[in-house]
Design brief:
The complex is a heterodimer of chains A (about 170) and B (about 725). With about 170 residues, chain A is an alpha+beta fold. Chain A has two domains: about 80 residues, Ubiquitin-like (UB roll), CATH 3.10.20; about 70 residues, DNA polymerase, domain 1 (Orthogonal Bundle). Helices cover about 35% and strands about 15% of the residues of chain A. A five-stranded mixed β-sheet of chain A has the order 2-1-5-3-4, covered by helices on one side. In chain A, strand 3 and strand 4 form a beta hairpin. The longest helix of chain A has 19 residues. By secondary structure, chain B is α+β, with helices and mostly antiparallel strands. Chain B contains 18 helices and 30 strands. In chain B, the strands form eight sheets. Chain B has a seven-stranded mixed β-sheet, with helices on both faces. Chain B has a five-stranded mixed β-sheet with strand order 17-18-26-27-30, with helices on both faces. In chain B, helix 6 crosses helix 7. The relative contact order of chain B is 0.13. Classes of the chains: A alpha+beta (about 170), B alpha+beta (about 725). At the A-B interface, helix 2, helix 3, helix 4, helix 5 and helix 6 of A face helix 1, helix 4 and helix 16 of B. Bound molecules: FE2/S2 (inorganic) cluster (2 copies). The site of one FE2/S2 (inorganic) cluster (FES) has 12 residues of chain A, from loops.
Chain lengths: ~170, ~725
Amino acid sequence: MNEPAPRALTTLASKTAITLTLNGSDTQLEVEPWTTLLDLLRERLDMTGTKKGCDHGQCGACTVLVNGKRVLSCLTLAIMQDGAAITTIEGLCTGDTLHAMQQAFIEHDALQCGYCTPGQICSAVALIAEGKARTRDDIRELMSGNLCRCGAYPNIIAAIEQVMQRAEQQSR
Amino acid sequence: MTSSYIGQPLNRVDGRAKVTGEAKYAAEYNVHGLAHGFIVSSTIARGRIVRIDSGRAASVPGVLRVFTHENREHLPSYDRDDEHSFLPLRDAKIHFSGQPIALVVAETSELARYAASLVQVEYSHEPHVMDLNTRRGEAYDPKEDEDSASSTKDRGDAQSAFTHAAVRHEAEYTHPCEHHNPMEMHATTAAWHGDGKITAYEKTQGAPRSQKYLMKVFGFKKDEVRVIASYVGGAFGSGLRAEHQLFLSVLAARELARSVRVTLTRQQMFTIGYRPWSIQRLKLGAGADGALHAIGHDALTNTSRLEDYTENDVGWSAALYNCPNIKRSYKVAQIDCYTPADMRAPGGATGMYAIESAMDELAYAAGIDPLELRLKNYSEKDLNEDKPFSSKQLRECFRQGAQRFGWAKRNPAPRSMREGNELIGWGMATGIWEAMRLKASARAVLTYDGKLDVASATTDIGTGTYTIMTQIAADTLGLRIADVTFRLGDSTLPPAPIQGGSFTAASVGPAVKAACDAVREKLFKLARNVPDSGLANAKIEDVAFVDGRIALARDPSLGVTIVGAMRYGNLKQIEEVAKAELAEDLEKRYAMYVHSAIFAEVRVDADFGSVRVARVVNAVAAGRILNPKTARSQVLGGVVMGIGMALHEETLADHDLGRFMTHNFADYHIPVNADVQDIDVIFVDERDDIINPLGVKGVGEIGIVGTAAAIANAVFHATGKRVRDLPITLDKVFT
Ligand code: FES
Ligand code: FES
């Protein structure tokens, strides 16, 4: 075989220093250029609340908030997020108090195995912030990037609607 | 038992762990010194590896080892030919496309993945077959046949009754291969403890089963290997067997004396078990009044060349319908694929799709309302073995389901309902699933502070086991939910069966109750001796355990607190272990089933033929419902998977390459949020004093059974087009 001998990945590129505001705290990290935000969280930082369901941007399990917007962390290289504020499922509670969306998911049984759940919740939180969803069908459409093989969809919709309605009532 | 929790829609006790990300799944234990394995999958379907060159991969700095069939440790189990006939890296033979042929282990997951791309393989090809259709001539009676047709006897003379029937329907129904695709990919973190012992954090539906597998395959002693599955990100049958990642991670950990994790990629999730293709021929003969005179049901499913996979496709009609003449056959044919596996309601989802579609066609042929036809042929006993039902409230399912749906307003004529550009169709079907129960055990430990710890090696794959077992335990001892902890998913806990077949509640529930009852008795004896308790002359039947107290039922002011009784007895804890199983003769005397009636409304775009399911009403009779909230979720999930089966799911194969083509979520479609609209679940009252002490049957599978048929029937009603080949994609609707 006359292919070139493989090079060590570590010689392909050196690590780069980045800073992420991770769930509110500034975190200095050295990352390899190919490390996805998802692998950074799960494998380097032991923040396993963010899930990997496909690694290809097809399931939504890895959804996190980057500067408040929902982003698939498996399709995002960590190095691209230098300076960004990242919120993961671990960062949604305030102390022991759950985020309203987390609480609504529990109350409506919007989860079964729980594996898609962190992604669903992050996505739902961002969905409300986006302010585009008006009807139940809108929510369904705008939550369709988050797959749930357990089929908890009707309960996910119920949970999101409840949080949306409460938020509207409060803003009135 | 006083029930303050059983029957209540309690929130999941594991809900908080799941919404905060604290719940740890198999690939999430970042144990010390962890190495990462990546599987190299074969690219051909059948043949041999002529040469495998892992030199380039192994030379990448950070790569620890490349395991192939040439260099892996020799295990005695490689020489055994008995069961688990497939073990990765056994030899050079290729049995299916995607077969694991090497494992690259490296310091990081990226390195392992990169190095895996450098493994060079040369194959010698042998001709393969992947298309079941071309194998019809090679179909045979399967070797292991417990599940399938021969366990149920034929009756009467179906052929002649069919020939003479006033109304006849005969057709073939097919459905494709489907993959379970739980959201969590299969993974094992094999933690190496330095003394040869291993803890495997494993995605499985049964920690004890995975432990047994490791003992058998690697020769571990029981105390040398522990399997933990505290949280399982769905499985639906894919976790019943030990899959490639368990074997390979443990193999590597042993040889490297290091902890190793192996995770399948989503693409590799298509290299494990799946629901097989099926081809079913139904023949129904009836009188002009719709009374069934003959049922013929012949099913063919694929298996692999490795072993015979079988499922019960054809056994359902005789339990469901009162028909004197029934003839069935079940055959398998081999293709060059991995062996199929049980997938949610194996056989039931498949067989009932065909039966209930055929019943709808018969209804049209006879000019009878489909619901009326079901009632006309309602069975009062199970004709498979001529046994009464332990309970059967299917009639009530029909009544309540039809009422909620508004079935009475249905105009039977196809294409009779339309709104704008949408053709509207209403269809219905029946569901049935066995109510099984297996041997299980549990341990209950009550401590002096009034806290109860209950444990069993069962699993919670999203079903709600944590929650319902906590409810049962809390009620048995009259404790608050917050004072009860239920642990599961650990092979060191008292043995319990795998989670599957909808039998967990009915199997483990009674064991939990028995263990708590044993604690209860001890506690009661203590309480009687407490001075001034007022219980000195009481019998256990006279007292109630409520709110942490043991008190006389007729005068609750007399009694003692649990904590008080423990203190009086000077006890740190009371520990009891109990086993529970089905009374031996019960199965001989009774037929035990869960039933359901499904009503579906579809909307079909009149130009494009695209189908959406606007609403489903599923009325279920499943004995006592321990927790209507989690039980409803189970049925919802089943219905959603039924929508997928009806409209979306299909693993397409490239017959030339012998390979699955649709091996990712972009190509293998499962229902997304926008595909699912109104689903209404009704639990009808069904009291069953025979089946088990809790009167519970189980709801994990029933939601999918019959759902695809109800939708297919609705599509016919909407369009006049009968699609007998799932999934009902738009190309099939108007061609
Ligand atoms: S893991 Fe990122 S979308 Fe699936
Ligand atoms: S809860 Fe299991 S995948 Fe959504």
